[in-house]
Amino acid sequence: MKRSALRLSTLFCAALAACAVAFSPVARAQNSAPKMSFVTVDYPGAATTTSVTGINDFDEIVGIYDDVQGHTHSYAGKKGSTHFTPIDYPGAAQTYVFRINNWGQIVGTYFDKDGYQHGFLRLPEWLTGWTPLYYSFDFPGASRNKVFDYELGTGLGTSAFGLNDLGEMVGQYADQNGVGHGFKLTVKGFTSFAMPLANSVPGFPGGSGLSGINDFGDVAGAYASKNPMDFKYGYGFLVHNNRITLIDPPASILTEVFGINNRQEVSGFYYDANFLGHGYIYSGGRFQIVDVPGAVYISTVGTVNNRNSFVGEYVDGFGVTHGYIGTRN
Question: Quick one: three-class SS letters along the chain?
Answer without folding.
Answer: CCCCHHHHHHHCCCCCCCCCCEEECCCCCCECCCCEEEEEECCCCCCCEEEEEEECCCCEEEEEEECCCCCEEEEEEECCCCCCEEECCCCCCEEEEEEECCCCCEEEEEECCCCCEEEEEEECHHHHCCCCEEEEECCCCCCCCCCHHHCCCCCCCEEEEEECCCCCEEEEEECCCCCEEEEEEECCEEEEECCCCECCCCCCCCCEEEEEECCCCCEEEEECECCCCCCCCEEEEEEECCEEEEECCCCCCEEEEEEECCCCCEEEEEECCCCCEEEEEEECCEEEEECCCCCCCEEEEEEECCCCEEEEEEECCCCCEEEEEEEEC
